[in-house]
Amino acid sequence: MKINITTHNTAAKTIIFPLVENEKLAENLSKIAKHVGLSAEILQQDFKAGAKETLALYGAVEGLEKVYLLGLGKAPKAIDFVKVFRSFFYNSKKKLPKNVGLKLKLAGLEAHTEQIVNGICLAEYEVGAYKTDAKKVAEFFTEDAVLEIQVAENHLGSAGKSAEIGQATAETQARIMALVDAPANYKYPQKLAEFAIESGKQYGFDVKVYDEKQCLELGLHALLAVGRGSTENPARFIVMEYLSPSATLGERSSDSPLPERSRRVGLVGKGVTFDTGGISIKGSASMSYMKSDMGGAGAVLGAMELAAKLQLPVHLIGVIPSTENCVDGNALKPSEVISSYSGKTIEVIDTDAEGRLILADGLSYIKKNFEPDVIIDLATLTGNCIAALGYAAAGLLSNNDELANELLEIGQDTGEKLWRLPLWDDYKDMMNSDVADIKNLSSAPVAGAITAAKFLEFFIDGHTNWAHLDIAGLAFGDSEFAKMKSATAYGVNLLTTWMRGIN
């Protein structure tokens, strides 16, 4: 699908008018009534512009076959534009022709072009990639289709750039959703590595993949311990690095306009491609959804790809420790004491608390080898976080108020909401071990999301600008776009939007 931004009336025979439920609605409906040759009173009676409300009008004037009125609700936020447009185009894409006009000018919605285009492009994604009766691509999403967006003259340039970002973001989000939705036999550590390599080649960032022998040489003992139970699909350690052409690694000279050094951002994502729980095995009721336990890795892969695609002026490092957590005679056992990349020893209380073990190696590695200015890790880590926050927000734990506040604010805009939980040392003693430097699970059945973060904090080696995002309830869930739970690409837009604003 090609997107054209124009100030002129579109030649498309199918037109969409998005409208906000506000004091200007009656005036805007009157203008539309004249445009389509209908009664303003009838439109005002039949359409109230509630969120996702639609009204289809047919062929009232020559050259115009169909008009849709699309409601945005009262005072819509940025994420509401994504939701409304994704819903409308997902549910309508089989009925839409190749050429569609979208009039933002009437209601003055040009400032939300990025979110609107993002929602429209996300509507193309379908969950059923492995069905044998593959669905035909909707005409609207074919290569020769055209979406023509009308904007006011003074928004022409900015809307064009915003549309490009919205479309690029949606393309990457869809790739990550497909990856997270993939079943366990199609997605294992080597497949994550291949995704990273292919993405790096296409968009211009470096990728290094360490196999199990190289992981042992590096000293990634915690990662390898978790992967012991998976003999067919051994662990992989993925390290990605992106430096934009406009970024710099050097120091600024007295006469140079360049910054002293582009901000160095480190991202670490949990990449457990399937989690049985190990010896501390999970119940069977929802184990099939554990194909999504690499949602944090998906967010990091997506953020790397999108940052490179948009050529953000940052120095970005992404680290993904990836493994399956399976059960066989070699599997990690509760009570074992294992080592880690940091050299610290860990008493394993529960093998289903495996995500924090592999993140411990990832965090220690990125801190020691890259010294990022900021470290952010993302993981589908604890059921306790879902118990605390449900499915509306991810947990945020950070040792830096400025970073935490930035992420909280951006999450409200992108719809990837966060809620901050305390990282106080009151919880530190709950992770004390009698036989090792730390244990991987508190014996108390409370504050599980917080004690997991305290465990991770143990491995950042005093870094003072770190945030941990527990995305267990957000990376995979229910939606109108699938009959079962499906991927959301949570974190991709959040991280990228944050990086767009840090320089």
From TrEMBL:
Residue ranges of every copy of the Peptidase M17 leucyl aminopeptidase N-terminal domain listed in the record: 17-133
Catalyzed reactions per annotation: Release of an N-terminal amino acid, preferentially leucine, but not glutamic or aspartic acids; Release of an N-terminal amino acid, Xaa-|-Yaa-, in which Xaa is preferably Leu, but may be other amino acids including Pro although not Arg or Lys, and Yaa may be Pro. Amino acid amides and methyl esters are also readily hydrolyzed, but rates on arylamides are exceedingly low
Enzyme Commission code(s) on record: 3.4.11.1, 3.4.11.10
Cofactor binding remark: Binds 2 manganese ions per subunit.
Binding-site residues for Mn(2+) 1, renumbered to this chain: 275, 352, 354
Ranges annotated as spanning the membrane: none
InterPro entries xref list: Leucine_aapep/pepB, Macro_dom-like, Peptidase_M17_C, Peptidase_M17_leu_NH2_pept, Peptidase_M17_N
Top-level taxon of the source organism: Bacteria
EC top class named in words: hydrolase
Residues that bind Mn(2+) 2: 270, 275, 293, 354
Protein name as it appears in the record: Probable cytosol aminopeptidase
Gene source species: Emticicia aquatilis
